Fold this protein.
Amino acid sequence: MIRSTFSSASLRVSAGFAAGAVLLFAVAPAALSDFRLGLLAKYLCIAMVAVGIGLAWGRGGLLTLGQGVFFGLGGYAMAMHLKLTDAGPGQLPDFMQLYGQLDELPAWWRPFASPYFALPAIVLLPMIVAFGLGSLVFRRRVRGAYFAILSQALAAAMAIFLIGQQGTTGGTNGLTDFEGFFGYDLDDPINQRMVYFIIAGTLLALLLLTRQLIRSRYGELLVAVRDSEERVRFLGYNPANVKLVAYVVAAGMAGLAGALFVPAVGIINPALIGIVPSIEFVIGVAVGGRATLLGPVLGAVAVAWAKTALSEQFPAAWTYLQGLLFIVVVAFLPGGLASLITLARRRFRRTSEESTAVGKPPSPAPAAAEEVAA
């Protein structure tokens, strides 16, 4: 019985991933224009951040309101490499020449000229920062709203820092106007589709990784820490280390998403990594369903699409509509949109059981009951 249930669940998951792959790699490129496909690539990058938040928040109870920091670290690392590649060996990037504040390339920019440094940095740099912050916070048992406020303050501090470094980071304008992506011209629509396929494949890989973590012993331990941290500590585990792993993994996913966001959208600036984007990441996860695997992805894509569609018609009111959407979901559908499937499945099962019970003939009364009645 257990083995058959396990195999059927695995079959459903495999079918779901296959359907997602067909949808992303065949249906979407055939049905969408180049512009809409570029927007979908942007939404999928946001969905990568949502996968990490779903792991940390949905499974571990860590409300991370500062994922924009790690998204920005990965994005700026990729943007710096692309800018240096476009400028050529020994040359300053165009924005540094425009502002005229520097005569030579800063020392901390130089390693990013090498792809062998830049590519690992887009994932390792966010993970290192998350490890340092998480080690300080979790081992002092900071949690709940205090952790959320602290992570949000980190996002605000990083955005302010980048704005003040106009000569080295582009300031408010950020880094933009990228010409190539590892030797491929980004102005070519075919290469833009290649970037989309890379993003779609990366998202599916992150989903598979997250599923393995959730199904592993660590995933069970993470849920136990979320539900009863003190009990886990009494059992001999260190809850700080368990939460730290989830936080670091989520940071790495956000950094990878930020790096792929740069060639897909063509810009990275402080407005994309501050408090507001970090909250929007969380809203997408909450709307989709933070406790599920696909819920954060669907919610992030839906919220990002709604922002694009509704902001064109209601540019001044979209922020209020977004806040209203978050309040309605939290108040009336805490499990997110993904819980609707579970509720519908339960209702169908209950209806089928009731119909089966109605169709059955009444069972004969026990002999003891007949003797008492006599």
